[in-house]
Amino acid sequence: MAVGVVERQPSRLRTYLELVRFSHTLFALPFAIIAALIAVRFGGDPAVAAAAGGWSDYWSKAFAGILLCMASGRTAAMAFNRLVDRAIDAANPRTAVRHLPRGAVTAGEVIGLIVASSGIFIASTLLFLPNWLPLVLSVPVLAWLLGYSYAKRFTMLAHVWLGAALGLAPIGAWIAIRGGIVVVDPADLLPAVILAVAVTTWVAGFDTIYACQDAEFDSRHGLWSLPARLGVSRALRLAAVLHLVTLGVLATLPLAVPDLGLMYGMALTAITALLLWEHAIVRPDDLSRVNEAFFTANTAIGLVLLVAIALDLWL
Predict the structure, then answer these.
(1) Does residue 134 sit within a domain?
(2) Which of 39, 66, 131, 264 is least enclosed by beta carbons within 10 angstroms?
(3) What does the pLDDT look like over 179-200, one tens digit per residue?
(4) What phi and psi, each to the nearest 5 degrees, are found at residue 213?
(5) What CATH number is attached to the domain comprising 48?
(6) For residue 258, is it within any domain?
(7) For the chain, how many structural domains are there in total?
(8) Strands (DSSP E) along the chain, which ranges?
């Protein structure tokens, strides 16, 4: 009997991870780490570091807290999205195979996952992040993350809302490291704000591309996605504009972080190529490669930028 329990546990965990698409944490996580690395380069709050027991404990706790907040916050938001969209998902042939519509998990289980993840998110800001600001901001941030799930019911800006939700990651990581310095000098946030705007437009662009698959369904059911309201062709053009803005914003980051150099320039070239490829393989008359563009290009972009910035800052 005990053996049977041990064998079932990994399978259930895997079900929960698949429910929230945990692997997609890779989209925003590199940008949180990037912001943390740049913030470390700028230097943390000496007073808070002393209270935390020295710089080593300060950095290690901050990075642990950032990782926990990223994972738990995204899990709570994604589980909440699956819960409130379960009827919509069941009606859509593309999403009817998701876990809640097909009965692989119950609504009670998903609610438990939301509550547990939200609790971990808030507790992480208290126990791991070395200043008080993240704790104060944790509930408003969580409300924004969860609120996205209702956005497509009343605004075409739902894609931008999602982008802003992921764009909070670098700002949160920066505040976790810099602490009271941000309070004294709000201009200190500039590198994190640049990253946040880049993430917002990047995610809004690729989410618009992804939503093209459901343009007809969304239009019939009164949902406010850009493809449903503007049509697939115009939505794809708008996604391209958003990604042009992303590249333009990323090009300004070295002005705020002068240590960025050759590796960062090479990364921007690679990211430009990835975005061009993403838009080249998705056309209004052929959406068959949307998933390929969505997963391959967008997973690579954050990782390429993270490696390049780490090399520029620390070599």
Answers:
(1) yes
(2) 264
(3) 778 877 888 999 999 999 999 9
(4) -60, -30
(5) 1.10.357.140
(6) yes
(7) 1
(8) none
